[in-house]
Structure formats: C-alpha cells, structure tokens
Amino acid sequence: MSNKIQNIEDTDLPRVIVVGAGFAGLKLVRLLAPSAFQIVLLDKNNYHQFQPLFYQIATAGLEPSAISFPIRKLFQNQPNVHFRMGSLLEVNPDQNSILTDIGEIKYDHLVLCIGADTNFFGNEQIKKYAIPMKTVGEALYLRNRILENFEKALNESDIDRLDLLMNIVVVGGGPTGVELAGALAEMKKFVLPKDYPELDFERMKITLLEGSGRLLNGMSESAGTNARDYLTQLNVDVQLNSVVKTYDGKEAVLASGAIYRTKSLLWAAGIQANRFKGLNEDLFARGGRIIVDRYSRVKGSENIYALGDLAYMETPRYKTGHPQVAQVAIQQATRLYRNSKRILKNKKLKEFEYKDKGSMATVGRNLAVCDLPIGHLKGFVAWVLWLFVHLMAILGAKNKLFVFINWSWNYLTYDQSLRLLIRHKNDNVVNE
Ligand SMILES: Cc1cc2nc3c(=O)[nH]c(=O)nc-3n(C[C@H](O)[C@H](O)[C@H](O)COP(=O)(O)OP(=O)(O)OC[C@H]3O[C@@H](n4cnc5c(N)ncnc54)[C@H](O)[C@@H]3O)c2cc1C
C-alpha cells in the first residue's frame, strides 16, 4: 500500500507522529497537545486500555468499558491532534515516513510507544492452546472460556473430563499471575458454588506455576513470601521452580516431568516488545526492545524516539533496562515532553532517570503487598492503598465511579455480577 493517510493537511507546524495510545503515548500527546506541533496519534484500537485491571475483567469483577477509554473523546477540543485507528507496519527512517495499514504518512518527529505482547518463548504449541491476557479482548475471552467450561462441566459425568474443565493452571508468578490466581480462588470460594450448586468445588484445583524460586520477582523478598502465604491461604497450589515445557490443550508437562491436566492454562509468563519492519536488527535488545539513549532517542537517530515497554534504556541505576511498568512509560513521556520544551528554549537536555514510587500486587480481599520507599506493607493497609492507587490511575471520572461502585458492591455482597457469556454466533470453542 502506498496511499497517503487522508484528511491530515501538511501545515507549517512540525508534525509529531505518536504511535500507540497506551500509558506512554497518551501521556505524551496530552502534554504536547496545547503546543505548537501538529500531532498525529495512531493506535490499532480506538480506546486506551488500563492493563493492571485486566484480571478483574477475566474474573467477572469489572466490565471492559470500565477500564477502557475512547481516545477520540480525550482530544475533542484539540484541533491540532489527529487520531487515526490503524496499525504501524513499517518505519522508513530515510524517508521520514511510516507505513500503516491505512496508508503512509511523513513525520518530522516519530515517537514509538507500541508496548509489548505475550511472550511464548517460541513454543508454538503453548501459543496455540494457552490463554494470554495482554488485551481487553483476551481478558474477555478468558472470562468466557472459564464460564463456558463450568457450563459444560454441569453436563459431564466422566470424572477425568470434569477435572479438565474445572481445574485452572496459571503460569507465571509475577503480579499478573498472582492477581489472577488470587481472584480465581475467591471466585471458587464465594461465587462459583452459588452459581453451580450441582458441582463439587472440592474437586476444583487452582495451581500457580512459577519458573523461578520465588513469586513477584520484581518486588522485595518479603512481598514474594507474603503473596505466597496469602495464595496458600486461599487454597491455591503454588509451585515454584516449575517450568512448563509443553501443553496440548489438556496436559501441561513440566521440565521436571510433572503433569497438570486442565483445559484452562492461563499464560502470564512473559512479554516481548511489539514488532514492525524498517529498523536495523542491531537496534533491538533482549525481548525485542528498541535501544534508546537517555533522551529516549532510538540509537543513531535524531528524530525517532521509543518509550515505555518498547524501549530499552540503560542507566547507572538500571544497567539492564527499566522494568516494563506503567510508571516508567509515564515518566519517560513526561521527560521527553520537558526536553522538547528545553530544545525550544535552547537549553541543555536532561537525561531520564526512573523514580521508583513503589510497586504493589493484590491477592484478594484485604490481602495485598506493597513495596514503598518507606518500607514494605502487607495485608489490609496494603490492600486499601492498592485500591486507592488503581482507582486514581483509571482514566475518566465515569470509569472511576463505575469501578468504585463495582468494587464496593463486590466487597459487600461477596459476589461479582458480570458473569455474562456474550459471544458472536460464529464463535467456536477452541480446545474441544
Ligand atoms: C495484565 C497486566 C497487568 C499489569 N499490571 C501492571 C501494574 O499493576 N502496574 C504497572 O505499573 N504495570 C502493569 N502492567 C504493565 C503496564 O501495563 C505496561 O508497562 C504499560 O502499559 C506500558 O505502557 P506503554 O505505553 O509502553 O504500552 P501500552 O500501554 O501497552 O500501549 C501500547 C499501545 O500501542 C498500541 N499498539 C500496539 N501495537 C501497535 C501497532 N502495530 N500499531 C498501532 N498501535 C499499536 C496498543 O493498542 C496500545 O494502545 C501490566 C500489564 C499487563 C498486561
């Protein structure tokens, strides 16, 4: 395709193309919007997704619309911001242009913030059968799959097949895996027995498999130990040093030879940066991340930048790159914006350094862990802090209100009320 993206006029203003409206891209465009640039924002979706709460969609605690925000609504009053829904296919640095699935467009400055996707570490079989959770769509699919399995379990008399349908294995003991396993355990305890009284939930096993020797590797030792204790308290079978080698849709075989039988293998074991064509291979580091300098400039380039999960930046404090978390993305976008202002004032650019404000993970009601600059918190206090921080981070007052109402309702009634199986008539159940 070589047609031009339509209805974006060339003007006297320098054009900044920002690709990806996640945490980094959206922050940057919101900061840049009042300035003297023409901004083109491109994303393959027409909404921003709040990934930290995907697990609550998957476990029927929240509706997708509560944690997704329409991008157009944010820039309704910004005539210099043009949003286009489309996918980046290729960057052409020699021409200062990008190729997308809706056409080609030239830039003066290009900022790449397209984030990351699930990493199956090259295992095609696991990719085919495991269920990832890296988009709202995948989280919704996961919810449907779990509910569908219980509907089928009701009609099953064979004990082996019943176990396949009821058991759930979560792979990856980072925050996503821990939060997912905890939420599923609470569903098993408070919700599913009421919905499916004919099923024996003593049979249902929830297992969390982690390849390393501890949970929550990016957090403190205490956070990992506390999370493990909380999960055990919720009857999750936590298995450390457990690496999944194969999964055929029914049996997950570990490196140790141990076998776990389930039709629901939820994959939260790693991510890799999203790819596109056009940049030299030597610009990519581990995990497919693009190598940038301390000003977020792609190595060897003057006008291409990469931010967030996509970017690989070494600093004295982060010698192997930053953690792939929302705060890094947001802070890099803010630094880039501030540096753009410094350029206009002929001031020296400032190097980026990440200010770690802390990290947290929740396991269940009243159970969470937080590592803060002041120390480690756990239990109820950590849980309330987790709720507050996440509520404040969600985009839009209406979304905040809906999430707050949902959480209060779920807390008081011990029930999530969103267990609808909404499918297109052509949807087939894979993994028969
Ligand atoms: C389940 C889950 C839970 C998480 N929990 C936490 C947490 O509790 N705390 C925390 O700090 N971090 C958490 N993270 C990580 C955090 O979400 C990321 O670090 C953060 O989103 C990175 O921001 P980003 O802007 O780099 O990318 P993203 O926010 O991922 O945004 C990338 C954007 O690019 C778009 N895009 C992708 N490919 C293309 C393309 N080819 N063309 C056009 N657009 C494209 C996508 O649609 C998306 O809008 C979690 C992630 C997941 C998946």
Explain this structure.
- The strands form eight sheets. A five-stranded parallel β-sheet has the order 5-2-1-9-21, covered by helices on one side. Strands 11-18-12-13-14 form a five-stranded parallel β-sheet. Strands 6-7-8 form a three-stranded antiparallel β-sheet, with no helix packed on it.
- It has 432 residues and is an alpha/beta fold.
- Strand 12, helix 7 and strand 13 (206-209) form a beta-alpha-beta unit.
- Helix 1 packs parallel to helix 9 and helix 5 (136-153) packs antiparallel against helix 6 (159-166).
- Helix content is 31%, strand content 22%.
- The chain contains eleven helices and 25 strands.
- It starts with 14 loop residues before the first strand and ends in a 19-residue tail after the last helix.
- The radius of gyration is 23 Å and the shape is globular.
- The protein has two domains: 15-118 and 272-344, FAD/NAD(P)-binding domain; 124-269, FAD/NAD(P)-binding domain (3-Layer(bba) Sandwich), CATH 3.50.50.100.
- Residues 19-25, 42-45, 51-52, 54, 87-88, 113-115, 133-134, 175-176, 274, 276, 308-310, 324-327, 329 line the site of flavin-adenine dinucleotide (FAD).
What descriptive keywords fit this protein?
single chain, 432 residues, alpha/beta, FAD/NAD(P)-binding domain, 2 domains, 5-stranded parallel beta sheet, globular, binds flavin-adenine dinucleotide
Topology summary:
Blueprint lengths: L14 E5 L3 H10 L5 E6 L3 E3 L4 H5 L9 E3 H4 L6 E5 L2 E5 L4 E4 L2 E4 L2 E4 L3 E3 L5 H6 L1 E2 L3 H18 L5 H8 L1 E4 L3 H21 L10 E4 L11 H13 L2 E4 L4 E4 L3 E4 L4 E3 L2 E4 L3 E3 L16 E2 L12 E3 L4 E2 L13 H19 L14 E6 L2 E6 L2 E4 H15 L3 H17 L19
Parallel strand pairs: 1-2, 1-9, 2-5, 9-21, 11-18, 12-13, 12-18, 13-14, 20-22
Antiparallel strand pairs: 3-4, 6-7, 7-8, 10-19, 15-16, 16-17, 23-24, 24-25
Bound molecules: flavin-adenine dinucleotide.
Flavin-adenine dinucleotide binds next to helix 1, strand 2, helix 7 and helix 9.
